[in-house]
Amino acid sequence: MGFWGTKLYQSDQALDYFSTITDLLEREMAYWFSPEQVRHEAWWLGQALAVVELMLLFEQHDKGSSVYVQSEAAAARWREVFLQVWDGDWGHEPEPYDPQNPLRTPEQRQQERPMALAMFDYLHTIAHFWTQIGMSGSKPELAPMQLPHPLPYFSLRTPTRFTSDLFGHLEREIIYWLSLEKRSEIFWSDVVEVWVAVDVLGFLSERYERTPGVNATTVQVWREKTVDIWKDSQEGDEQAWDENDPLLVTVMGVFDHLACMAEKYPPMEW
Questions:
Q1: Angle 236-237-240 (CA atoms, 0-180°, nearest 5)?
Q2: Total number of domains constituting the chain
Q3: pLDDT (tens digit per residue) in 25-59
């Protein structure tokens, strides 16, 4: 494992762990765009758009996270399959289980077409960008994302289970890495997984304007456990622990951000 800076994602382990999150997006995209799952229904459009929006949100989060979107053929197929459904002459009658879906009628879809098209076009731009890097070894400039509306857009109006599941997945990952079962074997560098999950959870909570699923007190406990693990790993080396270490300061910042989101969007009391 190597660190080459003091930012959150300037380490092999941080990028490797982040790839486990983007793996979920890849799997979900493959699932909804498989022939078995494609449906001429507003509900299907919502599922597909939710994953695309997450892909583009991670790209906006600026971690080079879209490296997994490097197949221009796949991006072109996604666009083609999606538009076949989007532009189809269906939806004149309400869907019995989702009568108010904003993508239900051809007229509604025609109105929203520029946004959907821009999203898929930019996915193809990303794929072309990574293809160029792979072929030339150089790093061309990725064109900035220009969409008619800020993200998330469609998935704010048609929430999906996958988006909620992703929030829950990140919460469980943090709890797992800080659990008593892991404490005996975890080293300070292993909390990289924790701070990546905390960062992504805080980012998504802010963008979706929804609770991260925990309260600020829980986030503070996570923060204290992370610091304890960091300190314990440096035991016997007094020079190694520095509360002003730039990386530690950055990591504490992501906990502070998540705590702010937890205060702004507290979980529902049962």
A1: 145
A2: 2
A3: 999 999 999 999 999 999 999 999 999 999 999 99
